């Protein structure tokens, strides 16, 4: 039902006519409804500025001052929903056999000190028991033992083997000395092969020395190169 | 007869032109199409400053980007920007990087950052080293345009920026943007990660 009504003077009476044409007399309010509504809104803001609808109004008023972070956030594609790790290693890379370094050489652990050896036990043999068993066996014809002829010279007078086979086919001799029983003295000047060996040895020592000095110089230059940025030492991890 | 053949040839020519233009558009560099030219700048005034927490310098102007950016997109506009020290702000939650020269923003892009179990640390880091053609020995992957931030390997480098991806702690940028940033940045320039 619509009510047409003429705006009355505040506090006075007015004639209200509804849509059917019926008229009645009504008392106008002291405060107009619009003013009442505005006052109620102000009261709401004053009473509940943090939780009520006033909070939203206040917030909208405050957002007029936007920070740079707000502007930046406005262009964001949004908060990340998933986080799939970027696959950086090819799956086949794991199948590749891993080359392992050779095991490092370790010095053998020092042996525990051994207990002092037991005292020596004097060995006694019953030579009488051993003697009849010992029988030298030779496949060839029976050996005839005889004294060496006195005229055979030998360089080692102290070790002159008394055994010489006669017709046995082999001789256990004391070594053939030089004729005349004199030891040959080495010549005063070394032979050419000896000279060559000595020169080669000194050359090898010299080469090793030079190589070692060059390596030392290179190692000593490393910090200087790093300092001059000619060499970069980095641990490339990422 | 003459009118119909004229109409036929006209339609054929129009179709050929359409195909030509379409091929030209499709054939263009995808990185070039990702570039958005900003319309204007958001300039700070004494009445309306642009406060920014953790900023190396007070912000004088920002790039006005219309709407949210998509993955792989970036904006770079340093026209009319005076010289100054370069610094970088990285917003992990918003997935954005902002490159500033002095107080003016000259570039912004969508980034990738570390996964929850390999997070990107927040803080302020100077750029420790630059390597244009870096290859990660740890992850066996190419990482061009690397700007190293920490000693244990957190860097800014080019990568394939797509939705739902996460890195092992680095900051991944679109490659053209990473190239521009690499050319501008110097060792020692500050990077703020929030």
Please give a structural write-up.
- Chain A is elongated.
- Chain A contains five helices and four strands; from the N terminus they run βββαααβαα.
- Chain A has a three-stranded antiparallel beta sheet with strand order 1-2-3, with no helix packed on it.
- Chain A has a domain at 3-63.
- Chain A is mainly alpha-helical.
- Chain A has helices at 33-47, 53-62, 68-74, 127-130, 192-227; strands spanning 3-5, 13-18, 23-27, 84-85.
- Chain B is an alpha+beta fold and 194 residues long.
- Chain B folds into two domains: 1-29; 35-193, Beta Barrel (L,D-transpeptidase catalytic domain-like), CATH 2.40.440.10.
- Helices cover 21% and strands 31% of the residues of chain B.
- Chain B has three helices and 13 strands; from the N terminus they run ααββββββββββββαβ.
- Chain B has helices at residues 2-27, 30-34, 175-184, and strands at residues 41-43, 61-63, 74-76, 86-91, 96-101, 104-110, 123-126, 129-136, 141-148, 155-158, 165-166, 171-173, 190-193.
- A six-stranded mixed beta sheet of chain B has the order 3-6-5-4-13-7, covered by helices on one side. A four-stranded mixed beta sheet of chain B has the order 8-9-10-12. Chain B has a two-stranded antiparallel ribbon with strand order 1-2.
- In chain B, a hairpin with a 4-residue loop joins β4 (86-91) and β5.
- The longest helix of chain B is centred in the N-terminal third of the chain and has 26 residues, at 2-27.
- Chain B is extended.
- Residues 29-33 of chain B have low confidence and may be disordered.
- The interface between A and B is large, with 29 and 54 residues.
- β4 (84-85) of chain A pairs parallel with β11 of chain B, so a sheet runs across the interface.
- Chain B: Keywords: Cell shape, Cell wall biogenesis/degradation, Peptidoglycan synthesis, Transferase.
- Chain B: This is L,D-transpeptidase family protein.
- Chain B: Residues 86-194 form the L,D-TPase catalytic domain.
- Chain B: It comes from Sphingomonas horti.
- Chain B: GO terms for molecular function: peptidoglycan L,D-transpeptidase activity; transferase activity.
């Amino acid at each position: 039902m619509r009510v047409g009504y003429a705006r009355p003077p505040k506090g006075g009476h007015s004639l209200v006519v509804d849509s059917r044409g019926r008229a009645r007399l009504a008392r106008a309010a002291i405060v107009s409804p619009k003013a009442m509504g505005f006052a109620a809104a102000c009261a709401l803001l004053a009473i509940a500025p943090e939780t009520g609808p006033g909070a939203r109004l206040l917030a909208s008023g405050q957002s007029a001052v936007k920070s740079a972070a707000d502007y930046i956030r406005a262009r964001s594609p949004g908060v990340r929903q998933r986080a799939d790790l970027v696959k950086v290693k090819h799956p086949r890379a794991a199948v590749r056999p891993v080359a392992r370094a050779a095991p490092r050489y370790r010095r053998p652990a020092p042996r525990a000190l051994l207990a002092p050896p037991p005292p020596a036990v004097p060995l006694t043999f019953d030579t009488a028991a051993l003697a009849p068993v010992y029988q030298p066996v030779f496949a060839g014809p029976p050996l005839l033992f005889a004294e060496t002829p006195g005229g055979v010279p030998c360089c080692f007078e102290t070790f002159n083997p008394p055994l010489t086979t006669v017709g046995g086919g082999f001789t256990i001799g004391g070594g053939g000395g030089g004729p005349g029983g004199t030891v040959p003295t080495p010549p005063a000047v070394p032979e050419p092969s000896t000279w060559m060996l000595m020169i080669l040895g000194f050359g090898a020592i010299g080469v090793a020395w030079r190589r070692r000095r060059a390596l030392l110089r290179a190692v000593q230059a490393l910090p200087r190169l790093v300092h001059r940025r000619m060499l970069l030492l980095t641990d490339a991890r990422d | 007869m003459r009118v119909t053949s004229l109409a036929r040839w006209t339609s054929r020519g129009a179709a050929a032109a359409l195909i030509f233009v379409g091929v030209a558009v499709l054939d263009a560099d995808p990185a070039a199409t990702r570039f958005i030219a900003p319309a204007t700048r958001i300039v700070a005034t004494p009445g309306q400053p642009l406060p920014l927490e953790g900023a190396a310098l007070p912000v004088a102007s920002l790039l006005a980007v219309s709407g949210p950016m998509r993955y792989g997109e970036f904006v770079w506009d340093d026209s009319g920007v005076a010289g100054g020290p370069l610094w970088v702000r990285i917003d992990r939650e918003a997935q954005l990087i902002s490159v500033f020269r002095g107080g003016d923003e000259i570039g912004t892009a969508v980034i990738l950052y570390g996964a929850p179990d390999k997070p990107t640390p927040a803080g302020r880091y100077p750029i420790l080293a630059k390597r244009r053609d870096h290859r990660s020995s740890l992850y066996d992957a190419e990482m061009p345009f690397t700007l190293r931030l920490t000693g244990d390997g957190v860097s800014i480098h080019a990568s394939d920026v797509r939705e739902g991806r996460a890195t092992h702690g680095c900051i991944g940028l679109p490659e053209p943007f990473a190239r521009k940033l690499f050319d501008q940045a110097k060792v020692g320039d500050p990077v703020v990660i929030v």
